[in-house]
Amino acid sequence: MKTHRLARVAEVIREVASETILFELRDPRVKMVTVTRAEVSGDLQHAKVYVSIMGSEQEQKICLYGLSRAAGFIQSKLGDRMRSRFVPVLQFVLDKGVKNSIEVARLISEALGQKTEETEGADQEAEPRTE
Questions:
Q1: How far apart are CA 25 and CA 67, in angstroms?
Q2: Cβ(36)–Cβ(17) below 8 Å
Q3: Taking the CB of residue 19, how many other CB atoms lie within 10 A of it?
Q4: Which segments of the chain does DSSP mark as H helices, in order?
């Protein structure tokens, strides 16, 4: 199948999933969720929806369980939007890329902060004192 069609279907899945989770899902377990991307299989039978969930690991597990329980509802909303023979079966996967990027940014800023402190200390030692 053509890759541009798969990309279009993945984008529709991402849009419908994020709108449904944000506006129509009433499950209290599902909160602080961001749909980052979606991947569709070549035969349009299965789709992985990658989500970023803020909170502790326990809260993430609870939220993923709530999303898996709501997959049928989200698929029905997707079926209303798509005009194809099959509606892909949705699987929700935790996307750790966002948390990894936040951690890398924290480490970089920490390293730059240490480097700045070292250079400030060296500059103060190099300046002659006039007393």
A1: 9
A2: no
A3: 15
A4: 3-19, 57-69, 71-81, 97-126
Specify the higher pLDDT residue, 119 or 89: 89
CA 10 from centre of chain: 15
What does the domain layout of the chain look like in residue ranges?
A: 3-95, 96-131
User: pLDDT of 26-47, one tens digit each?
Assistant: 999 999 999 999 999 999 999 9
pLDDT at 16 over 70: yes
**Residue 3 in contact with residue 41, Cβ under 8 Å?**
no
Whether 37 and 50 have beta carbons less than 8 Å apart is answered as yes
CATH assignment, 3-95: 3.30.300.20
